[in-house]
Amino acid sequence: MDGTPDAGDLTLAQIEADPALRTRDDSGIAALAIGTVAWAIALGIALMLGYTGQVIMVCALGTALGVPGMVLASARRARLRRSDTGTA
């Protein structure tokens, strides 16, 4: 044992106070990026396999909606970081 408490022993206040304990990306940008890339790959595969119509439309819309989603999530994260530092 190295003297660090188990995750079950930590309170929410302790986790929020120590940046090293906050490893999760709460902004959702990583999930949006992965989803957008997955839709772009699906679009490329659908085009190579000769699909038309709804399949192409769904893949294209998935890709197209991911981009503004990442922009909005990035802006939200930046706004939240500014408000945490008191420079809002």
Describe this protein's structure.
There is one protein chain. 66% of the residues lie in helices and 0% in strands. With 88 residues, the protein is mainly α.
Outline of the structure:
The protein is an all-alpha fold and 88 residues long. It has a domain at 26-81. It has three helices and no strands.
**Largest sheet composition:** none
How much strand?
A: under 5%
Structural class: mainly alpha
How many DSSP-defined strands? 0
Rg over C-alpha atoms, rounded to the nearest angstrom:
20 Å
What are the segments in which pLDDT stays under 50 over at least 5 consecutive residues? Answer: none
Overall shape: it is: elongated
How many helices? The count is 3
Along the chain, the helix and strand elements come as HHH
Average pLDDT, rounded to a whole number, is 82
Cα distance spanning the termini:
42 Å
